[in-house]
Specification:
Two copies of one chain form a homodimer.
Chain A (H helix, E strand, L loop, with lengths): L31 H5 L12 E14 L4 E7 L7 E6 L14 E9 L10 E11 L15 H4 L10 H23 L3 E2 L5 E2 L11 E3 L1 H14 L5 H23 L4 H26 L6 E2 L2 E2 L10 E3 L4 H11 L1 E9 L12 E10 L3 H22 L1 H10 L4 H10 L3 E4 H12 L16 H11 L4 E7 L15 E9 L3 E9 L3 H10 L8 H8 L5 E7 H9 L20
Parallel strand pairs in A: 3-5, 6-12, 14-15
Antiparallel strand pairs in A: 1-2, 1-4, 2-3, 4-5, 7-11, 8-11, 9-10, 12-13, 13-18, 15-16, 16-17, 17-18
Helix pairs in contact in A: 3-8, 3-9, 3-15, 5-6, 8-10
Protein name (chains A, B): asparagine--tRNA ligase
EC number (chains A, B): 6.1.1.22
InterPro entries (chains A, B): Aa-tRNA-synt_II, aa-tRNA-synth_II, aa-tRNA-synth_II/BPL/LPL, Asn-tRNA-ligase, Asp/Asn-tRNA-synth_IIb, NA-bd_OB-fold, NA-bd_OB_tRNA, uS15_NS1_RNA-bd_sf
Amino acid sequence: MAAESAPPVEQMSSVTLNDAVEEAQFSKRVLIRTILGRPDGGAGVAGQKVRVGGWVKTGREQGKGSFAFLELNDGSCPANLQVIIDSSVAPLGQLVQTGTCVHVEGELKVPPEGTKQRVELRVHKVLDVGAVDPAKYPLPKTRLTLEFLRDYVHLRPRTNTISAIARIRNALAYATHTFFQKHGFLYVHTPIITTSDCEGAGEMFQVTTLINDAEKLEKELIKNPPPSEADVEAAKSLVTEKGEAVAQLKSAKASKQEISASVAELTKAKENLSKLEERAKLKPGIPQKDGKIDYSQDFFARQAFLTVSGQLQVETFACALSSVYTFGPTFRAEHSHTSRHLAEFWMVEPEIAFADIKDDMNCAEAYVKFLCQWLLDNCLDDMEFMVKNFDKGAIDRLRMVASSDFVRISYTDAVAILEEAAKERKFENKVEWGIDLASEHERYLTEVKFKSPVIVYNYPKGIKAFYMKVNEDNKTVAAMDVLVPKVGELIGGSQREERYEVIKDRILEMGLPLEPYEWYLDLRRYGTVMHSGFGLGFERMILFATGIDNIRDVIPFPRYPGRADL
Amino acid sequence: MAAESAPPVEQMSSVTLNDAVEEAQFSKRVLIRTILGRPDGGAGVAGQKVRVGGWVKTGREQGKGSFAFLELNDGSCPANLQVIIDSSVAPLGQLVQTGTCVHVEGELKVPPEGTKQRVELRVHKVLDVGAVDPAKYPLPKTRLTLEFLRDYVHLRPRTNTISAIARIRNALAYATHTFFQKHGFLYVHTPIITTSDCEGAGEMFQVTTLINDAEKLEKELIKNPPPSEADVEAAKSLVTEKGEAVAQLKSAKASKQEISASVAELTKAKENLSKLEERAKLKPGIPQKDGKIDYSQDFFARQAFLTVSGQLQVETFACALSSVYTFGPTFRAEHSHTSRHLAEFWMVEPEIAFADIKDDMNCAEAYVKFLCQWLLDNCLDDMEFMVKNFDKGAIDRLRMVASSDFVRISYTDAVAILEEAAKERKFENKVEWGIDLASEHERYLTEVKFKSPVIVYNYPKGIKAFYMKVNEDNKTVAAMDVLVPKVGELIGGSQREERYEVIKDRILEMGLPLEPYEWYLDLRRYGTVMHSGFGLGFERMILFATGIDNIRDVIPFPRYPGRADL
């Protein structure tokens, strides 16, 4: 096993021309990438016998039905393997339908001269077929719009575009982990269910079992109605009666046996009463107390939400383990129907102790460059697909970002540049010191003015969160945003305010209550440390990389107002 | 940048003795691991000037207060760096308090003979101090129980145990990604918010904005009460009146100007009426329809939950991209107060096309072995800490699992073994064919009978989920569980039923409705494929590795009934 540990992933693709194609270790087939992803396009493994499996992209019968060509894709790479099956091997009719799953054995051959392929598979045996009725299959081979595909999230991974995006997304996720691990950052799973509201103002989803509990109770009460007042009164009378009986027997000096039998009856009557009283209290509906919902009866004994950011929580680990990051789902219950918003999306949030805003910018820049270079090194075929079909500039953009130094300007300088620009072009949003930069401003800076990624830093404190470090000018905070062409803001981060008195005042200044932040203040009370961090919207990074326009197409299962399929 | 891409992480630790210690790239310090983690324990870098930062584990003044020793930890490794500060450099009183954060510059020196350390730091300059008031600090240097620490989730990462667990957890997470990437699996982010219930019976958390919306509305209605019936009636009368006025003017052949002025008044009255009628409909409370909650008004226009498993959704990608996995948070709203249950926990769920139950077992075994070997290769210092403090057998257990072939027995054989054993020992739960194995049975098999990891396969179909492949005997399904010493079941998996008619019947047989599973059935309707997968409870793996007893201590922010801190 020792040989299996810590394998450099990139060795996977550096097969030499002499290698035999290797069967995948945990499935009965050779990955098509293992054949077509070779530097020789697969020519060097002609003659070998292999099993492959995949789904038919297109198929056609030829030679008057004597054989069929299938373009087979197994998701391991964008390229299809050309497969040739003789009618003597299997009935061809159902094999050629788009969407059919085939699992076959055969021999790799060099195709006749003049064809595009460097290798093709001659099938000797069909192991399995998952048929498709073309009259019913929702994804015919005609080109389908991304919008149409959103109604088939369970089938759309079979399309070229969604599968290419899935591979790019996978690559960016592993690149993210590799970058931070390489730099000694520890991956921390921050909570999804939270009782803190990071931004102090987020539209949050509530997590509860109260409604379910109320519905269960309601059903139960219908089946088994609560006692009436009369029932309770009757039970009370019985207790009195039994109590009197005991007293009578005692004063009459009855036998021990008689008395204890009578006491037993009294106990039983009392138990029955308390059970009835308990059940009489049961009320259908969500439990209330003092006119408000009684969250003490909710699962966590308080109101709970889905996290909007793991930052505050990951800071607790940064203030102990120094360099950490979180990478997980975050949520916003905003009724935004735009192409840039999701209700559920993934964020990467590193947090670094002993780091100031400059270190933070260095980390953000190195990380984004690393991601771009990783795609160029590991996903060039998928990127070529995106260039051909969606965004001519996608690869050039990755190259540009991977190789250029990011421009760094202060917010104040950025505003001056925008004010100058506003003399010659019209912005929809007015530019003046103090505003939050709008997307059009950000894109002007990165796309028009600098034609490069830009980091804007030192924003007015009035428009930024309470946890950001107040600069010496007392007007700005040590915040920074990374702007890139195509999407504008890709990263937002800051040095965190580590001074107890200052951050406490900032919380109060913003009209927030202190109590929910006491744990956060503890990080400043005890062994406080200079620290900084940032957040990268993972889907935004994929939009940036692929050139896709709508964020709903770069996450496997998009959630937005009115939609949460599957 | 090209040189930075795809770096083999393991090179990080293979520094040679000639290397200069390298400053961390994004913070102003050298990681203590870079010094103490060297094969020479740091002796080879004596003489070098470095900056380090961390938190004081213990400190003491010596030589009548002329200098102080600090044991400094920065979370990069379990070992502390010994730091010596002269009273001429900084006031020592506050530096020596446990929990103090110090950021210092100095020179690495070889300590006098006879001391434990191979290197220590002589401080020349104190850059920063985050002080601690020892009278208030909740984590004094005395040994604290894990139970006590659960009340301080925001500070407990500063303890030796929780930080060691955090590093082990981090290593297992990265090992997970590396294993699957190495084998060509694509990482898929399955949804957290879901409208499907995988198991068909899970206790699920509900995700909603209805309560929040109702509270907002209630406040709004108090500020701005809805119109009374009289208000609406008055508005209606006004419309009638204005309508009559228009009719009168028209029949009186009034001027165009007069008529259009009158029509304008009518229009205004009508608008006012419809506004009032709209507002009159507003009712405080959660919206109802036909006596039930009206989920069409919830955020996703239907009832939504937190996922209990990503399996069904990740199958949609396996049936398109062949080898995939998901690794994310999952949720159960069970009122379990045990040391083995959490309301929020992480699962690793691979799913493989063209794979049967045997491939599935091979994958599970290789994965678990890989994780164990990874910890031996990358976390031996933390594992030694666990052995010393919690579980003498922890490292031996990893070695055993990494190097032994897992025993594989059918459920039927397992039951026979247990029945035999039951003759000599007492199980709390009766053993007979058809039961679900209890934890005591599982642990008997792996700990007592085989003293090895055991995979039990082919379970009775009556106790397993509808999606598992029915075997030819029609009595069992191709399910498998991986049992390991210490925790029992670590992995549960199965070959999936790929036959449309069979799985449809299984759903109905179990009394489940078909409609919510139509999308899942589509995977069998169109291009169906043999496929298999499993789920590993990530926290269970950490319990197994570390020997820690309570699952609440191996996740950064535990969620369980009554508790969701931060």
